[in-house]
Every structure is written in structure tokens, then in C-alpha cells.
């Protein structure tokens, strides 16, 4: 195909742009060093540490606010009064009664931060951490930035959420560095744990119900409570953007409710700025590892109870490696919103009357949420085991130790060139690194002779085929939770690799399809398809896996291993989605309800596996099943209809079939990935699309 | 206040504010003094001003930046010969002397004064100046201007701070500055209806003085009243310090006569209120010289109040002060003037205290300070002061005073004496002279204003100040800027906020440009925080870019179509507003 020189220049510019944006995004260039905070704990008295002088500096030097005073401010606010009167008019109840209700809600919600409790925790956690972990590493520069930010602006701490430990750990670190202790939004389920719930409350947690959709009063109390703390800068607010612990170690699609609440005071001019601080907490071994796998396989999560926690004492005897906590660069909401949200649109409405955020604001908050989660991902520390798990999952039958070692080294190089934040022990010989990783994760992988393979839980007594399958699935899903940690590094080039290996005329179209399909499974910022595509191209070119002569994308001679690794990386997802599609087309009955969906897909997959027609265990994960359904719903291949109390799924078999087809083609291709690729994407076409859609200046920039 | 004779030009500074004989300077002993005899501060030394100045700005009296003395180079006039011939025939005086033209080529924006001091060339100045003596003269001039396609720019007191007097550089026609200063008579006074009919060129202080001779006043006292004109007030929707008693300019005018290219616009009666469609006065009020010249105004007058009393209240914090003013507004018991100065302005005001002569006064002052800061626990770096001015008959004033002080007490306010109050108002009259002093020592300064609903007052003040500080830092200003504000007017539903902003520009290549960028950012911040584009300064050319957002496209279209009808040839071509 002939190309005009103009387009060439355009492509060239694109590449430069991509390069520049990556340079900006690339955190590798200026990541901070870590310091192990346990080291000092091992050398000095924990008691002294728990009792030492603690005098953090607050926002603009405000004096901390007593919990009771805070409640009064909230209960007397115009915002709350307005809603109380509204609810009273609607329900016919007297305002006093509603006010009393509000007060009860607040009582149930509010934190009662007490320094004495924090000191207790500081003491107990020091002991526990020293037993459980080798190191707890924190980037001190991040702490310094945070300290600065706290004094200048209201700060919102947004840690990643992989474990129950997260928020105790956060408070522990802030206490260690003499920083203001955060107040933390926690799910109500903790409150069930009688004693512990109150302890958490006294260490700064406040409790919110998991769902309160229609409850105006609850929402008003809750949002005013959070905003009051934020506006006055009484304490940094901490919550988990992902909403819940990720059972798969992939970042979850961010929830926007609380983020909306903490950003609104900026839009309303009540504060000059709000600083969002992404915090990445990486565990070398997650305490809840196999618990999560079981949960994903449909064994319900045990209700949080104190006795349950005590039983968990067993875990105290194991080695959980290290924790890395990286405090990211504070993100100024003001700078982010510059040119995106016109604050004066808030001028014509009284500020104390609750109002649904405008479209402009909603999309800003959504973008911001994704951006923060990506920042969390960027600074997640990856251990060698994560790379090994990725390789083992592509070789379920096992690998020669030497092969595993060799491939791990290869993968390490690839990961580093993609700016992964890899914590690879300096100086240690590779074999040592591999063997110590295997030792730490001996519950997941075993070495017998020269072969490394996944461990399957030793069954007691005879087992049914289903039980054996279940045990194997636990291993696979546990292992997958490590592979998942590296996915954000490889995701974009991997989708491009899959798209290339798919004999389609339009690599971009295929990429865009996958992008859309997987946008519940991975953090893909809405509207960033083109940017992600370019990033993928850039990365694959950078590592020499593909070339982009003129308008094409061509696999190079040395590119095969990379592309086929990437293809294998996404294989379980492709297969999983396909199984869901098959189920919906072939098995699903007319009146399939939403509730029945997960168990039904699971038993469908179990049947396939037992019959030897499927080897992918990850399909059994309810997370993947949910994400696949969400994708199909988004693509209008499935609709939800509410009949009486039941939500029924209406399947558009034609649409599901064609999605299955596209995925299926992918998969078949992947089996014959030796075939030379016929690259035929015309970047010009993409460029033309861009022009047609009125390429936005933000993109050009 | 001093009497300003007609034709002020001779006794006014050409490159700074006010009278030539009045200025601040640091004398040989390093003490500040204010020269001349016209003001209460004149001839006094101000011992604490230097310290305040140096501490606030990081400036030093050693770093001088005196004005360059040679007058700016003036481009030669582009005269329209036919117009000049015809004008000569009418006998209306005119001039094309460089000095006269430059004097009317600017208002008092920072960039304008800075350019004058630095001897920078104005790109475009009026080509000639005419001095009509009465309404009919104006009619003749406008007719001739239309006939010969000459651009007219009305000129009153020249106190604009919105670049409204700047000549559009792209204007190729002959620009004639129409100076109304000779139209300065009170034509008649009607004591039955309490109105006066006045020519629009009259300067505020002259109007007040002449009315006072008959026992009356208008009560309209904008801070610029020494130099600004009645016509200018109408054209910019001016606001006076005592509007709580007398109203703003739009409440004061009963009848306006203006000359437009389409002819003379006026009403047929002087009914106190009419329902005759949209009020045509409101096309003229705030038209900023884009539609025509205001020539005569009938205005409400009041008997001079029997008794006047200043007062002041200190509050521990700005928040408490604002809450108090809000309550006063709610109870509709605002005195003639009530203003709340923030802590910075309070200290600024204190820096202007003249030397105390007796040890006793010194002692009393010390005692007061001790009482407020030590016994009452006010933090000197937090406390703010409200200044008050009561007017009326004596008994009512005293009663009113008590009511206001009682409200203040509920917000933790302490009465702080008449002297503090009066000094607060003094500051507003000498502030522009102080800017000239600052400019002698590398400090640039400006003020700007807005109006905002009550519930946003605090947030707006805080955010705008913070924005200024941030922008200064980002733009390389090496010293902490001064940002100060006061709540200067109260209304039922909101308040007018007045900001002072100044910084030491040492080390900056283009201080005026930096200043303008910061001011621009500050205005954006104001708008984002629910403030208006302007409360009383107007739009001019400085804030044109925000008009569409402020009044909607349809609004702009309405104004445009009025302009289109009234002045299709753009004779009044100062290009303000739209």
C-alpha cells in the first residue's frame, strides 16, 4: 500500500509522542529507595517505641478535633439539616426524630481515634510483623512528600487493597514516621468482630454500610462526615478505591462514591486543593492466599469474627517474606481538573443542597480514579516469584528447573525493559534467587528431581474426581494471583500480541475488541484505547519483538518467544470468556437468573474439564465469570431483565456466538503460533480514524 | 479633602496618582512622610511605615526604582482635517498638544502607570482633546464625529482601572478625547423633591462641596471621589462607601441625558419609578462610553446628616468578623459604612499611624494592645478589625451604634474606638499614593474587587489569596507577595470583596507581565468561586474575555444589538465591554 509522506510523518510523530508520554509515565526513572522499618524494631524496645512522643503536624497547623466535636459539627451542618427536613417532609416524621436517626447513624459510623489504642497496636503489630515478615520496606522520600502535602492541603490516602493487613499497616507506618494518623473508611462487616471492631474504631476506622443506595439520610450523614474531616484537615482520609480486597491480586475497577465525596469540596471552592496520594502495598506472600482461591471457587468467605481471626494464629508460624509500601507522588486535584471541569457551573446552586454530580464531573472523577489505580499499579513491587508463577502457569505439567531458571532470567529482562518495579536481589546468583523463591512459596510449587510443578493439596483419603479438580484449581488460582501482579506491566503489549497472532486484517480493530472485552478484568482507562495501542506498539518495538516498517506491524525473527509468551499469558482469559460464551449459547436455559449464573457456569466448566475438553482451571474463578458477564452486558450481548424479585439474563445468542467466534479464532491461532504472521494493519487507517473523530488536543499534546 | 479646580491637569501628577504636591517618601532619616497639606496625614511622619514596608515585601529603601523623568515619546496626531475645520467653526476649545493627549490616554491600571514611569511609548493616544462646555456642545461634537467618521472617547476623571481609557491600537481613524471637565455646574436644585440637576462632568468632591453649601449632599462617596466624575459613575455603575444609606449610583439617578450617534436619549418625566418596559437608564448605566456621552443627570439629594461617628470593632478572627457582618446585613441594620479588614490590612493601617506626640498616648495605646492581646487572648496575627461609619441624628446614631456593637459582641467582637475606624477609611484615600511609593522601591501593587454570595465569602477570600501566592511562586516572584482583602460592602444576599495585591519584583525581567498573569489567574479563581466579574470597577478592556461566560451568549447578543442600533459606525470606539 502506498503511503503519503504526510502519514509517515504523522506516524513518526505518534511514535515520538508515545515515547514522550511513556517517559513521563515511566516511574522507573525516578523511583525512590526503600528503608526497612522493621530493622529498628529488631534492635530497640517495642514498648519504648509504642510510648514515644508522638506529635504530628496537621493541615495548616489546625488543632486535632475531638471525636465528639466532630460529630456536633456534622449534626449541625446546613447540609445535613437540609436533608433532614427533606426526609421529614417526605416521610411525615418530625424533624427531631429524623435528627435522632441521623445521630444514631453517625454514632454507628464515627471513628473514635485514641492515641492509647494506637500505641497498643503499635506494640502488638511490632511483635506480629517481626514474626510474620522479613522486612517492611517504605520509601522514605514518599513519606517526606506526604508530610509536606499534609501541611499544605487536605490529603486523601489511596492504598491498594490486597489484605486485611493493609490499613493497620498504613496506620502503623504513619505512626512510625510521626505523621498524622488517617481516618479510614472500613466496611461494616468488620464491626461484627465485636472487640476488634471497637479496637479498629479507636485506631481511626469509621464504618460504612456496604450498600445504602436509596437511603438519603445515610448518604448525607456519611458524606458530610467525610467532607467535614477533609475540609478542616483534621486528619488525612484513607479509603480503598478498589472498594474491597482484590482476591486475584489484579487491581479492581475503582469505585467512585467516596472519591466523588472527597473531590467535591474542591469543586465547590470549599478547599483550595485536595491531594490524592496513591499508595502501593505489595506483599511477597499474601496472608489470605489460599483463602482467596477458595473464595473464588465458591466456598463462601467466612464471616469476619474474632474467633476466626484467632484461628488464623496458625499463620503466625509461617514466613511471609517482605512487604513493600510505596507512597506515590501526591496528585493535585486542582491540577488534574485544570481545563476539564468548569467550577463556575457550581455557582448557581446552593452548596449545601446535595446534587448529583454533573456529567463533566463524573467523567473527571472516573478518569481520576483510573489514573490513581494505574499509579498504584506502577509502584507495586514485583518479586522474582511473580515471573516464575507466570511461567509455571503456562506449563501446568511442570518445567525443568534449569529451563525455569533460564526463562525467568529472560522474563526478568523483558519486565525490566517494560519498566516493571522488580525487586530482584542484587548480586545473588540467579539459581539462588529461584530456589529461595521456590522455598518461600513451597505451598504452591514443588521441586521433585529436576522438575518444578504446581503443588496439589494432599488429599486425605480417597477423593472424587471433583475434589481432585477442586484441589488442583486452588493451586492454579493461588499461583495465578502471583502472575496477575505482573499483568499490568505486560497487558497492553500482550493484547497486541494476541491481536497480531489473530489473522485479522485489522490488528487495531482486534486490539480494540480485546481492550473493550477485558476492561472489567484489567485497569484500562476509559477512552484510552488508542493511547494503549500506541504504548503497546512502542513497547514491542522497543524490545525488538516487532518492527513497524511503514504502515505495518511485523513480528521480527527474535520476536517469537516474546509474542508467544504474551499470548500464553492471556490465554486463560480468552479461554475463560469463551467458556462463558459457550455456556450461554449452548446450556443456558430461558429463565437463567443472575443468581444461578455463577454456579451454572462453574458446573458447566467442571463438566468440560472432567471430560478432558478443557484444561483451563481459571474459568472456575467467580471473578472471571463475573467479569465476562459484565463485558457481555456492556457489549449488549446479554441483557438484564427484572422480573418480580429476580434478575433474569436474556442472552442474544447471535451476538454471544460472534464474540465466541472472535475469541475462538484467537485461541486456535495461538495453538499454531509458528505460522508467520501476516501483518496488515494500516496505521494510516488508524490515523485517519483519529483525524475523522476530531483528534483532541489533549491527545496531540 | 482638597478642592480641585477645574482643569485639574496642572496640579495633578502626570505619572502617578493624585495631586503633584502630595506624595509619600522616605526622608533622610529613613522615616516615611506624606507631603503637602491636603490630607489628614499631610506633613506627618509615619515612623512604622518603613519597617512594615521592608518586612512585608522584603524590600529595602536602598533599592530604589525612581521614575524616568523624560515624558514618553508621543506618536504624532492623525488629524481629520475636515473635522478640525468644522470644530473650529463651533468655537469649542480643543488641543492636540502632546501633553494633553497623553494625559487622557490612560487610566490608573498598574501597566499604564508603570509605562508612564518608565517613559515607555504608548502605542496609541488620542489625536486631539475637545472640551465641550455644555450639553449642546456635546451634541455638536457627536454630530461632527458622525459626519467625518471620527472616533470619540469620553473622558471624565480618568480614574479608570480597567484599561477603559486605553485607545484601541488598531483604531486608524482620528481619536478624539471628549473631556467633560468643563461641564461641571449644578444647573438647578429642587428642594421639594430633593433632587439636583447636574452636568455630568462634575467631579465628586466638587459636587459634594457645592451641595453642602446649600445644606445637602448626595452621599455618593466612591473611594475615587476626589477625582472621578458623575458621568463616569453612571458609565461604570459606581458604588459609594455609604451606599447602605444613600444607595449605589443606579439607586441615586432619577434622570439621565446622554448624547448618542442616533441622537439624544432621555426620559419624559422624573417619576420616581416607572413601569415602561426595560429601564433605558440601564442601557446607559455601565455602558462604559461605548454608546454615547452622559451630559446631564438628575440625582437624589439628602440634607447633610446632623451627626457622624466613626467606630471600630476587633474580632479574634476573620471568620468571626464575616459572620458578624452577615448578621448585621440580615438584620438590615448596617451603618452608612461597614467594612471588615483582614489581619494584613489591619497591620497595614497601623503602619500609617503618625508619630505619637505624648508619652501618655503612647501609654494608652500600649494598654489597649495589652487588653486585647493578653487579657482577651486575641492573636495579633489573626485579629481583624471592622470599621464603621454612622450617620444621622445624634440620638439615632447612638442607638444604632449600640445595636451594632451588641451584635458584634455575640461574635466575640470588642469595640476598638473611633480612631481605628477613621484610620481605616483614611487608608482607602491614600492607598493609591502608597502604590506610587511602592513603585519607587520595586514594588508593584494593584487592587481588584468582586461581589459574592455570603456563604462563599470566606472560601473565596482564602482561595484567591492562596492562588495569588501560588501563581507568584510559579512565575518566579522571589518574595512573598502581599495579599489582603476586606469585605467592603454588605448586601442582603452577599458582599463586595476588595483585594490588595502587591509584590517586590526585584529579579523579574518583566514585572508588569508577571503581575498581569497573576491578576488574570486571580480573576479566574474569583469566577470559579462564585464571585462576579466586577462589583463596581467595570469591565473595560481588561476583563472583556470573561463577558460571554458572565452574561451568556444571548446577553452579549442583546448588548451588541443595542450598540448596533445606537452606534452603527462605532463612533464611540473605545471597544470596552464587548
Automatic annotation (TrEMBL), chain A:
CDD domains (UniProt xref): LPLAT_DHAPAT-like
Query: Which SMART domains has this protein been placed in?
Result: PlsC
> Where this protein primarily resides, as one coarse class?
membrane
A Gene Ontology biological process in which this protein takes part is: phospholipid biosynthetic process
Q: Where is the Phospholipid/glycerol acyltransferase domain?
A: 155-284
**Which cellular components does GO assign to this protein?**
mitochondrial membrane; peroxisomal membrane
Which subcellular locations apply to this protein?
Membrane
Query: Pathway it acts in?
Result: Phospholipid metabolism
Which keywords does this chain's UniProt record carry? Answer: Acyltransferase, Membrane, Transferase
Molecular function via GO: glycerol-3-phosphate O-acyltransferase activity; glycerone-phosphate O-acyltransferase activity
PANTHER family tied to this protein: DIHYDROXYACETONE PHOSPHATE ACYLTRANSFERASE, GLYCEROL-3-PHOSPHATE ACYLTRANSFERASE
Give the family, as the similarity comment puts it: Belongs to the GPAT/DAPAT family.
Protein name per Swiss-Prot or TrEMBL:
Phospholipid/glycerol acyltransferase domain-containing protein
What is the primary gene name for this protein? Answer: GNPAT
TrEMBL record, chain B:
Q: Which InterPro entries match?
A: Alkyl-DHAP_Synthase, FAD-bd_oxidored_4_C, FAD-bd_PCMH, FAD-bd_PCMH-like_sf, FAD-bd_PCMH_sub1, FAD-bd_PCMH_sub2, FAD-linked_Oxase-like_C, Oxid_FAD_bind_N
Listed EC numbers: 2.5.1.26
Function statement: Catalyzes the exchange of an acyl for a long-chain alkyl group and the formation of the ether bond in the biosynthesis of ether phospholipids. Catalyzes the exchange of the acyl chain in acyl-dihydroxyacetonephosphate (acyl-DHAP) for a long chain fatty alcohol, yielding the first ether linked intermediate, i.e. alkyl-dihydroxyacetonephosphate (alkyl-DHAP), in the pathway of ether lipid biosynthesis.
What family classification does the UniProt entry report for this protein? Belongs to the FAD-binding oxidoreductase/transferase type 4 family.
List the active-site residues. Answer: 498 (proton donor/acceptor)
- Which biological process, per GO, is one annotated for this protein? ether lipid biosynthetic process
Catalytic activities: a long chain fatty alcohol + a 1-acylglycerone 3-phosphate = a 1-O-alkylglycerone 3-phosphate + a long-chain fatty acid + H(+); hexadecan-1-ol + 1-hexadecanoylglycerone 3-phosphate = 1-O-hexadecylglycerone 3-phosphate + hexadecanoate + H(+); 1-hexadecanoylglycerone 3-phosphate + a long-chain fatty acid = a 1-acylglycerone 3-phosphate + hexadecanoate
Its required cofactor(s), as named, are:
FAD
Output the Gene3D superfamilies linked to this UniProt entry.
3.30.160.650, 3.30.300.330, 3.30.465.10, 3.30.70.3450, Uridine Diphospho-n-acetylenolpyruvylglucosamine Reductase, domain 2, Vanillyl-alcohol Oxidase, Chain A, domain 4
Q: Which GO terms describe its molecular function?
A: alkylglycerone-phosphate synthase activity; FAD binding
Q: Where does FAD bind?
A: 154-160, 236-239, 288-294
Question: What's this protein's name?
Answer: Alkylglycerone-phosphate synthase
Compartment(s) of residence: Peroxisome membrane
Q: Which PANTHER family match?
A: ALKYLDIHYDROXYACETONEPHOSPHATE SYNTHASE, PEROXISOMAL
List the record's Gene Ontology CC terms alphabetically.
peroxisomal membrane
Q: What metabolic or biological pathway is this protein involved in? A: Lipid metabolism; Glycerolipid metabolism; ether lipid biosynthesis
Pfam families the UniProt entry points to: FAD-oxidase_C, FAD_binding_4
Q: Where is this site: Important for enzyme activity?
A: 339
Q: Where does substrate bind?
A: 435
- What do we know about how this protein assembles, alone or with others? Homodimer.
Which source organism does the UniProt entry give?
Oncorhynchus tshawytscha
Task: Report keywords, A-Z.
Answer: Acetylation, FAD, Flavoprotein, Lipid biosynthesis, Lipid metabolism, Membrane, Peroxisome, Phosphoprotein, Transferase, Transit peptide
The residue ranges of the FAD-binding PCMH-type domain are 122-304
Amino acid at each position: 500500500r502506498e503511503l503519503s509522506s504526510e502519514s509517515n510523518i504523522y506516524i513518526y510523530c505518534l511514535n515520538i509522542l508515545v515515547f514522550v508520554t511513556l517517559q513521563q509515565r515511566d516511574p522507573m526513572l525516578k523511583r525512590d529507595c526503600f528503608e526497612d522499618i522493621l530493622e529498628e524494631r529488631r534492635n530497640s524496645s517495642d514498648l519504648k517505641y509504642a510510648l514515644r512522643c508522638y506529635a504530628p503536624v496537621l493541615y495548616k497547623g489546625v488543632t486535632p478535633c475531638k471525636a465528639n466535636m466532630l460529630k456536633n459539627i456534622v449534626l449541625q451542618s446546613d447540609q445535613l439539616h437540609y436533608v433532614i427536613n427533606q426526609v421529614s417532609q417526605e416521610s411525615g416524621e418530625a424533624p427531631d426524630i429524623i435528627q435522632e436517626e441521623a445521630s444514631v447513624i453517625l454514632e454507628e459510623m464515627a471513628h473514635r481515634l485514641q492515641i492509647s489504642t494506637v500505641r497498643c497496636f503499635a506494640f502488638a503489630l511490632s511483635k506480629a510483623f517481626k514474626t510474620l515478615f522479613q522486612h517492611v520496606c517504605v520509601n522514605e522520600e514518599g513519606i517526606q512528600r506526604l508530610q509536606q502535602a499534609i501541611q499544605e492541603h487536605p490529603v486523601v490516602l489511596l492504598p491498594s487493597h490486597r489484605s486485611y493487613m493493609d490499613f493497620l499497616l498504613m496506620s502503623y507506618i504513619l505512626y512510625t514516621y510521626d505523621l498524622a494518623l488517617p481516618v479510614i473508611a472500613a466496611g461494616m462487616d468488620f464491626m461484627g468482630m465485636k472487640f476488634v471492631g471497637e479496637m479498629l474504631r479507636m485506631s481511626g476506622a469509621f464504618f460504612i454500610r456496604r450498600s445504602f443506595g436509596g437511603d438519603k439520610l445515610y448518604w448525607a450523614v456519611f458524606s458530610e462526615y467525610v467532607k467535614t474531616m477533609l475540609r478542616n484537615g483534621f486528619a488525612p482520609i484513607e479509603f480503598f478505591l478498589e472498594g474491597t480486597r482484590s482476591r486475584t491480586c489484579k487491581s479492581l475497577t475503582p469505585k467512585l462514591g467516596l472519591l466523588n465525596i472527597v473531590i467535591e469540596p474542591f469543586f465547590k471552592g470549599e478547599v483550595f486543593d485536595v491531594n490524592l496520594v496513591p499508595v502501593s502495598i505489595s506483599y511477597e506472600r499474601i496472608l489470605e492466599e489460599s483463602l482467596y482461591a477458595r473464595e473464588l471457587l465458591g466456598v463462601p468467605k467466612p464471616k469476619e469474627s474474632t474467633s476466626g481471626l484467632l484461628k488464623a494464629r496458625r499463620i503466625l508460624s509461617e514466613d511471609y517474606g517482605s512487604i513493600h509500601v510505596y507512597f506515590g507522588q501526591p496528585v493535585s486535584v486542582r491540577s488534574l481538573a485544570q481545563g476539564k471541569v468548569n467550577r463556575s457551573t457550581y455557582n448557581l446552586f446552593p452548596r449545601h443542597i446535595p446534587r448529583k454530580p454533573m456529567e463533566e464531573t463524573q467523567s473527571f472523577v472516573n478518569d481520576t480514579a483510573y489514573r490513581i489505580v494505574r499509579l498504584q499499579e506502577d509502584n507495586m513491587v514485583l518479586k522474582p516469584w511473580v515471573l516464575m508463577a507466570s511461567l509455571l502457569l503456562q506449563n501446568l505439567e511442570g518445567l525443568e528447573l534449569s529451563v525455569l531458571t533460564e526463562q525467568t532470567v529472560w522474563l526478568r529482562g523483558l519486565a525490566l525493559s517494560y519498566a516493571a518495579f522488580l525487586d530482584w536481589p542484587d548480586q545473588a546468583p540467579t539459581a539462588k534467587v529461584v530456589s529461595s523463591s521456590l522455598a518461600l512459596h513451597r505451598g504452591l510449587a514443588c521441586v521433585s528431581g529436576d522438575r518444578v510443578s504446581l503443588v496439589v493439596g494432599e488429599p486425605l483419603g480417597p477423593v472424587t474426581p471433583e475434589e481432585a479438580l477442586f484441589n488442583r484449581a486452588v493451586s492454579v488460582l493461588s499461583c495465578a494471583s502471583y502472575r496477575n501482579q505482573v499483568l499490568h506491566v505486560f497487558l497492553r503489549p500482550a493484547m497486541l500480541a494476541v491481536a497480531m497472532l489473530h489473522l485479522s486484517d485489522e490488528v487495531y480493530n482486534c486490539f480494540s475488541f480485546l481492550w473493550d472485552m477485558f476492561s472489567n478484568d484489567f485497569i484500562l482507562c476509559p477512552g484510552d484505547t488508542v493511547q494503549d495501542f500506541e504504548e503497546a506498539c512502542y513497547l514491542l518495538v522497543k524490545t525488538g519483538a516487532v518492527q513497524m516498517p511503514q504502515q505495518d506491524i511485523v513480528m521480527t525473527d527474535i520476536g517469537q518467544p516474546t509474542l508467544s509468551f504474551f499470548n500464553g499469558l492471556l490465554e486463560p482469559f480468552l479461554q475463560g470468556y469463551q467458556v462463558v460464551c459457550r455456556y450461554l449459547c449452548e446450556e443456558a436455559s430461558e429463565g437463567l437468573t443472575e443468581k444461578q449464573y455463577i454456579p451454572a457456569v462453574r458446573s458447566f466448566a467442571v463438566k468440560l474439564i472432567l471430560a478432558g475438553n478443557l484444561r483451563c482451571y481459571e474459568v472456575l474463578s467467580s471473578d472471571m465469570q463475573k467479569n465476562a458477564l459484565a463485558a457481555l452486558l456492556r457489549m449488549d450481548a446479554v441483557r438484564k431483565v427484572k422480573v418480580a424479585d429476580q434478575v433474569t439474563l436474556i442472552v442474544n445468542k447471535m451476538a454471544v456466538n460472534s464474540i465466541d467466534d472472535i475469541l475462538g479464532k484467537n485461541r486456535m491461532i495461538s495453538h499454531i503460533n509458528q505460522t508467520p504472521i501476516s501483518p496488515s494493519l494500516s496505521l494510516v487507517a488508524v490515523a485517519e480514524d483519529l483525524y475523522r473523530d476530531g483528534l483532541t488536543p489533549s491527545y496531540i499534546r | 479633602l482638597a478642592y480641585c479646580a477645574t482643569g485639574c491637569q496642572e496640579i495633578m501628577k502626570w505619572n502617578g496618582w493624585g495631586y503633584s504636591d502630595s506624595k509619600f517618601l522616605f526622608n533622610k532619616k529613613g522615616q516615611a512622610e506624606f507631603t503637602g497639606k491636603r490630607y489628614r496625614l499631610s506633613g506627618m511622619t509615619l515612623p512604622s511605615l518603613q519597617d512594615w514596608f521592608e518586612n512585608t515585601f522584603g524590600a529595602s529603601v536602598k533599592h530604589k526604582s525612581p521614575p524616568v523623568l523624560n515624558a514618553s515619546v508621543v506618536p504624532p496626531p492623525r488629524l481629520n482635517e475636515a473635522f478640525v475645520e468644522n470644530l473650529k467653526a463651533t468655537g469649542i476649545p480643543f488641543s492636540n498638544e502632546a501633553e494633553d493627549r497623553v494625559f487622557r490616554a490612560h487610566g490608573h491600571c498598574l501597566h499604564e502607570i508603570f509605562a508612564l514611569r518608565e517613559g515607555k511609548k504608548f502605542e496609541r493616544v488620542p489625536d486631539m482633546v475637545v472640551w465641550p462646555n455644555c450639553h449642546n456642545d456635546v451634541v455638536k461634537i457627536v454630530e461632527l464625529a458622525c459626519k467625518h467618521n471620527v472616533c470619540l472617547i469620553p473622558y471624565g476623571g480618568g480614574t479608570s482601572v480597567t484599561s477603559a481609557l486605553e485607545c484601541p491600537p488598531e483604531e486608524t481613524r482620528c481619536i478624539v478625547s471628549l473631556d467633560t471637565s468643563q461641564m461641571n455646574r449644578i444647573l438647578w436644585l429642587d428642594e421639594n423633591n430633593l433632587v439636583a440637576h447636574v452636568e455630568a462632568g462634575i467631579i465628586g468632591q466638587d459636587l459634594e462641596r457645592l451641595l453642602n453649601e446649600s445644606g445637602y449632599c448626595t452621599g455618593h462617596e466612591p473611594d475615587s471621589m476626589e477625582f472621578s466624575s458623575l458621568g463616569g459613575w453612571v458609565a461604570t455603575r459606581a458604588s459609594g462607601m455609604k451606599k447602605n444609606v444613600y444607595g449605589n449610583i443606579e439607586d441615586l439617578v432619577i434622570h439621565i441625558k446622554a448624547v448618542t450617534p442616533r441622537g439624544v436619549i432621555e426620559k419624559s418625566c422624573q417619576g420616581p419609578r416607572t413601569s415602561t418596559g426595560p429601564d433605558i437608564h440601564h442601557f446607559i448605566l455601565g455602558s462604559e462610553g461605548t454608546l454615547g456621552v452622559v451630559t446631564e443627570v438628575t440625582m437624589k439629594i439628602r440634607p447633610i446628616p446632623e451627626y457622624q461617628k466613626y467606630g471600630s470593632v476587633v474580632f479574634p478572627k476573620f471568620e468571626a468578623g464575616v459572620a458578624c457582618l452577615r448578621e448585621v446585613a440580615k438584620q438590615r441594620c448596617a451603618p452608612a459604612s461597614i467594612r471588615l479588614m483582614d489581619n494584613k490590612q489591619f497591620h497595614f493601617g497601623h503602619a500609617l499611624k503618625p508619630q505619637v506626640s505624648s508619652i501618655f498616648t503612647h501609654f494608652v495605646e500600649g494598654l489597649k494592645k495589652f487588653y486585647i492581646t493578653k487579657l482577651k487572648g486575641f492573636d495579633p496575627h489573626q485579629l481583624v478589625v471592622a470599621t464603621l461609619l454612622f450617620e444621622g441624628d445624634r440620638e439615632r446614631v447612638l442607638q444604632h451604634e449600640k445595636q451594632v456593637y451588641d451584635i458584634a459582641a455575640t461574635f466575640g467582637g470588642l469595640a476598638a474606638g473611633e480612631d481605628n475606624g477613621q484610620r481605616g477609611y483614611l487608608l482607602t484615600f491614600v492607598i493609591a499614593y502608597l502604590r506610587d511609593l511602592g513603585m519607587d522601591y520595586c514594588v508593584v501593587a494593584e487592587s481588584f474587587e468582586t461581589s459574592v454570595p455570603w456563604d462563599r465569602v470566606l472560601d473565596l477570600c482564602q482561595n484567591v489569596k492562596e492562588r495569588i501566592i501560588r501563581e507568584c511562586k510559579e512565575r518566579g516572584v522571589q518574595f512573598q507577595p502581599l495579599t489582603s482583602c476586606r469585605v467592603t460592602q454588605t448586601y442582603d444576599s452577599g458582599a463586595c470583596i476588595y483585594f490588595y495585591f502587591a509584590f517586590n519584583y526585584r529579579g523579574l525581567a518583566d514585572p508588569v507581565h508577571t503581575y498581569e498573569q497573576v491578576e488574570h489567574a486571580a480573576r479566574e479563581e474569583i469566577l470559579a468561586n462564585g464571585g462576579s466579574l466586577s462589583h463596581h470597577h467595570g469591565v473595560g478592556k481588561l476583563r472583556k474575555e470573561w463577558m460571554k461566560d458572565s452574561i451568556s451568549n444571548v446577553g452579549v447578543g442583546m448588548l451588541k444589538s443595542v450598540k448596533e442600533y445606537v452606534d452603527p459606525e462605532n463612533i464611540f470606539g473605545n471597544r470596552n465591554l464587548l
